[in-house]
Design brief:
heterodimer, A: about 110 residues, mainly beta, 7-stranded mixed beta sheet, 4-stranded antiparallel beta sheet, B: about 120 residues, 11 strands
């Protein structure tokens, strides 16, 4: 099984800042990588797939990059509604696997 | 509008079974692949299995293979997950999600299953 490791576990940022979240795969997953946003009491929401393609309706301030084993999610000019937990997910190999999440909290 | 609406919370005793339903709408159900994932409190998301709705093919994560069954009802566009021989560590929120081959593009609202004696 491919192990996905996210860093940092918690990131304290202020609105307007530009946080970068990292995700590492234990072996190459090519571009089979997605990012999700999860808020309390809500289901995860797909943000990015194919490592860098925004899902339908996702604001342009969210961007993804990387391939192979190293991936990043960047949020330009953080908005108040962006404080949430973010998960990466590799879907290139079975079993699919998820990172442990990065919690973006208000500084 | 794509929607996945799951059944309500369940409280079960150890050793029993639970069935969680996921009713879909807004897309062609019979052309879909449906995933099931769970998340225990404070833990990462854990993949359980998938079903190709068209032909009913399934694939389960190794840790669930002996205890989980996915099936579907095409007349109501609903998929079901049944998990047997429940243990306390099966306590989690269970999600269904539709898989477009590029991530899980829509998720159900989640169903809390609590296993307690």
């Amino acid at each position: 099984e491919i192990v996905m490791t996210q860093s940092p576990v918690t990131l304290s940022v202020s609105p307007g800042e530009r946080p970068t979240l990292s995700c590492r795969a234990s072996q190459s997953v090519s571009s089979g990588l997605a990012w999700y946003q999860e808020k309390p009491g809500q289901a995860p929401r797909l943000l990015i797939y194919g490592a860098s393609t925004r899902a339908t309706g996702i604001p342009a301030r969210f961007s993804g990059s990387g391939s192979g084993t190293e991936f990043t999610l960047t949020i330009d000019s953080l908005q108040s509604e962006d404080f949430a937990v973010y998960y990466c997910h590799q879907y290139n190999y079975w079993p699919h696997s998820f990172g442990q999440g990065t919690k973006l909290e208000i500084k | 509008q794509i929607q996945l609406v799951q059944s309500g919370p369940e409280v079960k005793k150890p050793g029993t079974s639970v069935r969680v339903s996921c009713k879909t709408s807004g897309f062609t159900f019979t052309r879909s692949v449906m995933q099931w994932v769970r998340q225990a409190r404070g833990q990462r998301l854990e993949w359980i299995g998938w079903m190709v709705v068209d032909n009913g093919d399934t694939n389960y994560a190794q840790g669930f293979r002996e205890r989980v069954t996915l099936n579907r009802d095409t007349s109501t566009s609903t998929v079901h997950m049944e998990l047997s021989s429940l243990r306390s560590d099966d306590t989690a929120v269970y999600y269904c999600a539709s898989d477009g081959g590029r991530g899980y593009y829509m998720w159900g609202q989640g169903t809390l299953v609590t296993v307690s004696s």
